[in-house]
Every structure is written in C-alpha cells, then in structure tokens.
Amino acid sequence: MRLFARVLPVVTWAVWAVTLWVPVLDSSLNSLHTEESMRIVVTSLGDVSSELSDLDPKFVVIWSCLLACVISAWLVDRLRIWAWPTVCLGIAILATLINMVANPPTLMWDSQDSSGRWVGGMEVASPAWGAALWAVGGIALIAAGICGFIGERQRSPERQRSPERFRQDTHSRFIVRQQRTPAENAARLLPLMSLVSWIVMIWVPIMDNQATDEEGVTLTSLGFNTTELVDMSPGILFAWTAVILSSAVGLTMEPPAWWSAVVVAFSVGLYLMLEKILAHPPTVRWRGETSSGESISANIVGFPAAGVNFWALGSITLIAAGISGLIAQRQRRRLFR
User: Which range is the signal sequence, renumbered to this chain (predicted)?
Assistant: First the structure.
C-alpha cells in the first residue's frame, strides 16, 4: 500500500504531462464549430490558441502542488499526514474538471464570406480525450492518499503492543517533541514565512510601472502581467515548487540529513533569480498617437516595487531555515555521541 501511495502520484503527473498535447476541452468536437471560426483548445496549461499560450494561474498552482506531492511522497517516511493534502488535491483536480465541463469557455466570432456577407456564430468547448485522462489523474491522487492511510495503519506496530507499552511510547514521543531545539523549530517553521511572502506577492507587484493610462508592465509571483497576458515562466514555476516543497517537507516529516543543503540551494537560486530580474527588468512596447495623429511609441520598463522586499525576505528565511537545519543536525549528532 505504501508503494502504491508513492507510485500513483507519478501516474497523475504523467497523465497531466500527456494532456499538454491531448486537449481536455476542444471546440472542434462541438456541433457549433465551423471551418470559418476559431478553435478553442484547453490543455493542462489552460486555454491555448494558435498564437498565444495563456497560462491560467490555477493550472500553474495545480502543477506546482502536484510536483510537490510527487517529490514529497518519496521523501516522507510517515505517510499519514501526507495523505490528507494528497486526497484534497485529488478532489480539487476533479472539482476543477467538473467546473470546466459545466462552464466551458465560449467565443463569439464574426467574419465575411467570399461574397462579402457577414457571418458569425459561437464556439463552445466540449470534453475531449484529455478530460478522461484528467479524471484518471484526480482519482489516482485520491487513491494514493487512501493507500497512504491504509499503509500506515498496517505498518503501525502499536496494534500489537500492550496498552501499557503504547502509553509509554506515546509519552516518549511527546517528550521528544517538547525537547526540540530552537534550531529544529526554526528549520520547520521558517519556510512557512517564505511561502507567505510568495502568496503576498500575488497582489503586491515585484516590478511595476504604470507610465501611461493605457498600458503598463507588472511582475508578480504569478509571472509577467499586462492587460492582455498572464505568463508564468519556467523560472517562476520552479520558484513556487521550491517554496511549497520546502514548507511541506518541513511540516510533514523529519527531513533527511541532506535536505537542509537542498533548502539552502533553493534559497540561493531564488536570490539569483531576483538579481537577474533586477538586472534585466521586464519591458513592454507601447504605441499611441498624438493629438495631431502622429504615431508614437516607447518602451515601458518595470521598476522595483514593494514585492522585491518580500522576495528578498522569502529567500533570507529559506537560507535561515537551511542553516538552522544544519545546526540542528550537528546538535543531534553531539547528543547521540
């Protein structure tokens, strides 16, 4: 059961990787679709057209949580706590699919035929083969969580012990938790501060410049935002995965000896990303007209905003968490000696 609990999230991840190319919703399967109209295609990255890949933030959050679930399943020794968020994630994936099927994306279009007459209609996305794969992935996550519960119950040695021995072991575990050093508590709780900082940066811009009333450039923790585009780059996806994984592992398990070094590496990577963003700020090409009708254009450059402080705070707290973990391991070795 514990093996199934670890393998099934990998199956879900593979299914979601397949739905990058296999549509979940496709308007060409709807009877309203015509050759003259545009086609609506929805994959596991959101709405995709022939010219623009628009990454919906909720899909990116699901991708990040799914990746954290897959990795933590092989790091966590006790799956009881891990199983709860896994089941919740599976339910959220199925609920998202049901919501998309119940409220499919639509598109009103108009054009001209060969005779110059105006024609038009409406495109409605219908479930495709990817919807079935999506459902399989959600069910696999729920099954993984249930297998984790069952595996931990089968593994638990308390069922074979006497009541007196069970009370002694429970009391011993309680004392051990009370005797955790400040370094151990810091290593477990500081990554949560980093996660909070990244959640705050969804609304507090990292780079921002509203130089004109028509168009500006804004960078948040969900990526580069303009009035027409929400684009989450692979770097932002890595950052979310690192922060969520660091927080989840610290709370759900006793991390292995090498995990603190990984957290420090994550924090250094986040700091280097911030340095790169500050050195190469995002820009948007703006075009307009003067009162006399002359065309003008300019580059709108994003400048550091309040979110830079939150990014730096998140990186520093992760560094402090990793260093605290290394100190706690050193203290533990001295205690055993």
Answer: none
Distances in Å between the Cα of 29 and the Cα atoms of 35, 40, 49, 124 are: 12, 10, 16, 9
Q: Which residue has the tokens 């429970």?
A: 170
Tokens read off for 285: 């090409």
CA dist., res. 109 & res. 142, Å (int): 40
Q: Which amino acid is at 99?
A: N
Residues 77-104 as b or e (16 or more Cβ within 10 Å = b): eebeebbebbbebbebbbeebeebbeeb
Task: Report the length, in residues, of the chain.
Answer: 337
Q: How far apart are CA 318 and CA 310, in angstroms?
A: 12
CB burial of residue 52 (10 Å; 0-12, 13-18, 19+): exposed
- H or E segment at 129? helix 129-155
Look up residue 218 and give its two tokens: 């804004």
Give me 216's structure tokens.
């500006």
Count of alpha carbons within 13 angstroms of residue 91, beta-carbon side: 8
User: What predicted TM-score, i.e. pTM, was given to this entire model?
Assistant: 0.51
Each residue's pLDDT, cut to its tens digit, for the chain (337 residues) gives 778 888 888 888 888 888 878 888 887 776 665 565 677 788 887 776 534 344 567 777 788 788 888 877 877 767 777 888 888 888 988 988 888 888 888 777 666 666 666 666 677 778 888 889 989 988 998 998 888 888 877 765 544 555 555 455 544 444 444 456 777 777 878 888 888 888 888 878 888 876 544 456 788 887 776 434 345 677 788 888 888 888 877 766 566 777 888 888 888 889 888 888 888 887 777 776 666 777 777 777 788 888 888 898 888 888 988 888 888 877 776 665 5
- Residue whose structure tokens are 């922060």: 243
